[in-house]
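note to self: dont lose this again. the chain is below, predicted strucutre after it. 415 aa total, dont forget to put it in the shared folder this time
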Amino acid sequence: MNRREFVSTAATGIAALPSLSLGASTELANTDPASIRAHFPRLANEVFLNAAGGTPLGKFAEGGMEKYLTLIREGPAGGTRDYFDQVLDELAAKFGGLIGAGAHEIGFVECTKRGEQIALDGVSDRLIDGGNVVSNDLHFSGSLHNLEGIRRAGSDVRIVKSEGFRVPLERMAEQIDDNTALVTVSLMSNINGHIEPIEELAALAHRRGALLFADIIQAAGCIPIDVKAMGIDIAACSSYKWLFGIHGAGFLFVDEAHQGKTIPDLMFPGRGIRNYAPFRVVPDAEQTTIGFRAPSTASRYQPGHVNYLGYTAAYEGLKFIEELGIDEIQAHAVRLNGVLLEQLDHSKYDIMSTHVDQSPILTLAARDFESIRDRLRASECTVGIGGDKWDQIRISPAIYNSEDDMWALVSVLNT
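---
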């Protein structure tokens, strides 16, 4: 089948995108695929197929950041203060809506690992008393580094090894016992897009009295998530990947049942009130000498001020996702990977991905890795290329990619 024949018989995918009405701040007026691509200037310079490593900055996100920069540079003229207030008022609810949580269950953290560390700190007493943490080797490598450090410090940390780039549920069940304090996994693996059977895993954890943390950085914004239905207790992600934000602005979910209890406050944002003269003429009889009112939402886990510039970008990214629809975003990426798989020379590659029908991440193991690595680096195609991490090629198209992008990559891979 040649390219023309394949395209004519492929599903319409991106051509059937819903109407966009994101407002003046994003300036997305057209609904055709080219209009979506036009809001990502980087696409004019390369075939960018590495959303799992971070999406290009969209003009809509840049517009949000420019409004915040104008506010702090020039003051609240021209509605910039109103815009910033709107971001702060709506941001938690928008992210909560994306993952099936309430706004009061969403806090802001600088990165995914910070959220995971909040979960680990929350069970620290149990670890000291002989409890354990269970994970697997498809979890984020930075998290595995942290967990290995905790193990070397004396805690019981159990890392289940994958089998054929899958983690059998029964292997996890063998390691989860009555002393397990936390099960921590990536909902979607950054290595090969493996999707955890999260509902079953959460049920296993809960039956043993453990909490479940999910790293959702590779899932939020590209596949449907319902943290309540999935049984997730705590989750976190950064915004610079599928949420179209930038580094340093991430999200934390803590189920309301655990806030300040199972996951205690280890840092208290806000201000201490000096409840005595001369700071107060009439001290408050109901407050201690240094008064304090703790937040009653997941904001209780924030250190104080956060990366407001980054959150304006994330806010616009969430609006972009909301208008397009998460099902459409997922289906488009999966379909594009199907285009590649249909035309790939399978004699040169092994497929390492386990969920090609659901995940936008497609990982190939090249039988001549060094040769294809060099060809990719010399081409205009940007994908995730292994090295000291793993000897695979990770392809992750997003809503801004086209079939032409996949054909460009195929021509490099099959050479």
